[in-house]
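User: Need the bound-state model for manganese (II) ion:
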Amino acid sequence: MMIVVMNSDAMLSQVSSVIHKIESLGLTPHPSRGEHQTIIGIVGIIDAGHKDDLEHIGQMPGVAKTIRITRPFKLVNREFKPDPTIIRVNGLSIGGEDFAVMAGPCAVESAEQVRATARAVRDAGARILRGGAFKPRTSPYSFKGLGEEGLKILRAAKEETGLPIVTEVISPELVPLVVKYADILQVGARNMQNYALLEAVGGIRKPVLLKRGMMSTIEEMLLAAEYIVSNGNKEVMLCERGIRTFETATRSTLDISAVPVLKQSSHLPVIVDPSHAAGARPYIAPLAKAALAAGADGIIVEVHPSPETASVDGAQSLTFDEFREMMDELRPVAAAVGKRMVLCGEDDAGMRRASA
Ligand code: PEP
Ligand code: MN
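Assistant: Bound-state model below.
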């Protein structure tokens, strides 16, 4: 794996010559025009036979230098594409200036539950509705979700509130169904290394929220993202949702370090899920603020009209009031770190609060 860095005053014809040279070697060039210079990543199996040719590229006119990349992930590597990947959903620039708040129940239980939650979280400032119709459950006897019926409920809530939907897909066979309803497809922690699923969501043209496996390293997560991107889908968000440690006071341990590490290693947006990390309501808002302060591009949070009756993850689901309070606490943090948080339908200049 190599990157060719062009001179800042390199001519277009010089860039094309390098691209042609790379192609003539049977390798794939990935040019990316940065603010100051063009860089061209080379992807393919580079073997000993290419050694002289690659050295030759380093000598071509307009080339400033070539860099060998030793990290195993390439397309998602920030060295490969220094500019952040910005994913546009519902007017948000995720990975750019916006702090995206996705909120909703863990599982879709009924039309009324989703409808009420969608309205409440939208009015409090969420811009994307979450909700699981297909639930991956640790026990085969637990509620596994409403399936397509749940997707229809989400769609109805979207039509009413204007909030796009993020929902989980748990197997490759379900991708064609889920993609019809979802605006963002979620790959859950338990499926982070389901390579058939990663390849399937790599073949669609909708953003993917890839959650970190609870026993996966950051590098394994980036390689999982690499599966999706190398299959053609460039719109991947990386989601830190807590990992398993010796600690038992929280459901998982939120690896807040993953936020700056991922931001530095990759150009992809980083989302934090404080709900599954904490597993308990009182810790959600502090962890959400920590995520924002650490540089995350958004959060995904569980909210339920009556958490005590929730069929899944009630202990970590915020009430409507708690969600609103958390949003109020997040706004000054966003302002302090230069992230934008605007309500649904509000224009850029608007600091107006939603009318009740
Ligand atoms: C969820 O989002 O409801 C979920 C199952 O999350 P995770 O895959 O992170 O456990
Ligand atoms: Mn959940």
